[in-house]
């Protein structure tokens, strides 16, 4: 169970790293998903570009209207309160739920977004926070809203030769925040996870753990925006319409549990965000 | 081949390695430090846990090449550590070891957990340990050892 051979490149700065991209390349950040995938040979690359030590990609900056988190900031650093303010507290809680501490010590925010695993925590969390993904290539830089960045399972808007350099989270955040996750075992990939942001600016309800990308529950958000005190029956109806829209199978008998997990995490996250 | 500089258990080494070698393979096969055990080889079991720059990582999913210029501590490097001596004694006394395969990774992770949570509840210990797989003990002895170790270290810190 070893990776197929690859050439290893360790650029000393971002421009050199961007020049090395393109072709059959894998980017190594924390490597906590990439290395298992290479070891199991479900992923392969001719060249591995190691950006783990690149300077300038691990900064956390608070500005008046946004919080900027560098792509190489680790889950553990966020878990330990590395990002300031109420958004930092939300990121800390989400980070602490990812896999295990030994994985969180190396795994990065940017790496998780770039892989876009359907059950990963950051895509859904950052969707609820309405983040913007900042990318760079040798030719240009882009600012991509997270909803446009996430395309499908393991598929993002990143173009060949493009790297994530940071994410920007708008400030101030919505007043209400809630999250819920169902997994078979602490640290395992989620069967369902939901994040809810409720405030004067509207509602953003994000769901992860489906068979595609993390998605916004737009009907549910519309119900909450029309009536912040909407009762459980109205919420359930909206959630079920959203899940139908995402083509989550309702299932019957033994596979009905997936549907119920999603309804549970969404209702739980919304209830917490209303407190 | 790629040349790297690595400090392992305090000793600075220069090594020439294949870029696809994991840190666990370099530790075991090139350095003969066989206290680091490889269970699953894809980051699922925690047996190969070592310290990279002082924090636990799973050495089977860390590329050795990316450790160039960094410091690695394996279970062999903890012999003189007084904190680890207390933890090892409690593992012995609470029967936290059966076959011993998970034990090196378990000890390194347990130490990190107790440093971050000096006064943990049983639930905290169990949650934080969830990434370390033990197939013998049912975790009862391991959790008991960690709680007893934490209590002794707290008492020592208070001068009791």
Molecular structure report:
The complex is a heterodimer of chains A (275) and B (160). Chain A has 275 residues and is α+β, with helices and mostly antiparallel strands. Chain A has three domains: 44 residues, Uridine Diphospho-n-acetylenolpyruvylglucosamine Reductase, domain 2 (2-Layer Sandwich); 110 residues, Uridine Diphospho-n-acetylenolpyruvylglucosamine Reductase, domain 3 (2-Layer Sandwich); 98 residues, CO dehydrogenase flavoprotein, C-terminal domain (Enolase-like, domain 1), CATH 3.30.390.50. Chain A has eleven helices and 14 strands. Chain A has a five-stranded antiparallel β-sheet. A four-stranded antiparallel β-sheet of chain A has the order 11-12-13-14, sandwiched between helices. The longest helix of chain A has 18 residues. The radius of gyration of chain A is 19 Å and the shape is globular. Chain B is α+β, with helices and mostly antiparallel strands and 160 residues long. Chain B folds into two domains: 76 residues, Beta-grasp domain (Ubiquitin-like (UB roll)), CATH 3.10.20.30; 76 residues, DNA polymerase, domain 1. Chain B is built from five helices and five strands, in the order ββαβββαααα. In chain B, strand 1 and strand 2 form a beta hairpin. The longest helix of chain B is centred in the C-terminal third of the chain and has 18 residues.
